[in-house]
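Journal club prep — side note

Before the paper discussion, L.F. wants everyone to see what a predicted structure for a comparable chain looks like in token form. Sequence:
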Amino acid sequence: MKHIAKQEPQIYRDFIEKHSPAEWGDVSQVIGYDLSMHMLMEEQNCQCAYTELHVEPESAHIDHFRKQSLFQSLKFDWDNLLTSCNSEAYGAKCKDRKLRKREQIKHGTCVFLYRARIKNSEHCKKRGTLPL
């Protein structure tokens, strides 16, 4: 996983200040597509934050790196938001299945094992650490 230089867009800051949303769905339903486009184009070079595979904007998913259910205080923290591919086999959904309890995250780093399918149908296994 490469470093992502986060740049909170003004549209997000303004929306949070004006509407004081209680749930993430309140944000994603209104400006989610714009946020996803900003992350893909300005921060992530149209790549999934976890696999670095190309992501089409229409199939992108805004992920809370630190799960909302475990880290409520980071629900609207821009630095906790990433865009990923929306697959059960790898990316955000795979991460969320593996991290179910806050206790699984130790000393600021979690080990995350994922598989990414590459164009020639081979599978590559990667093991990396994701800073928390």
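L.F.'s comment for the group: The chain has three helices and four strands. Keep this in mind when we get to the figures.
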